[in-house]
Design a protein that fits this description.
Layout lengths: L1 H8 L2 H35 L10 E4 L10 H6 L3 E3 L1 H29 L12 E3 L6 E3 L14
Antiparallel strand pairs: 1-2, 3-4
Helix pairs in contact: 2-4
Length: 150
């Protein structure tokens, strides 16, 4: 059983999948930073200084009771919140990841497409009708049987 597990674990597909998961997790942190640090601040600025991470609804107040100006304040007070802004950030992150994966798959598919086969080259030889030897196309006599060629 240990031998079977070892064979399974070191197969190319399993190792490739593990590398893919690790790279995917690292890519996810990059995308999260891109969304929260680069994309969302200008969008919030365009919407009048709105910080999406602080868009939330209080479902049940905490101690002390609200209103809370930031999500961190509500969570520190023990309030139960519906975190709409964090969800918006997550959706944008997903869209960026999905688009990136789409572009990679599109590039791979384009690379895999077969190129049209080149047109066959014009023949450069012909067959002697008398001895069936191959002779150059411009030959007027067969080099093998010396018959006249038409």
């Amino acid at each position: 059983m240990l031998k079977e597990f070892k064979e399974f674990a070191v197969k190319g597909n399993v190792v490739d999948m593990a590398v893919g998961i690790i790279i995917g997790a690292a890519f996810g942190t990059i995308v999260k930073s891109l969304v929260s640090d680069i994309i969302m601040p200008p969008i919030g600025l365009l919407l009048g200084g709105v910080d999406f991470t602080n868009i939330f609804l209080v479902l049940k107040g905490g101690t002390p009771s609200g209103p809370y100006t930031a999500l961190a304040d509500a969570q520190a007070a023990g309030a139960v919140t519906l975190n709409v802004g964090l969800f918006i950030n997550t959706v944008i992150s997903f869209l960026i990841v999905a688009f990136s994966v789409f572009m990679v798959i599109k590039a791979l598919n384009k690379a895999k497409r077969e190129q049209p086969a080149p047109a066959p080259a014009a023949p450069t030889t012909k067959e002697c009708p008398h001895c069936l030897s191959t002779v150059p196309l411009k030959a007027t006599k067969c080099a093998h049987c010396t018959s006249a060629l038409s």
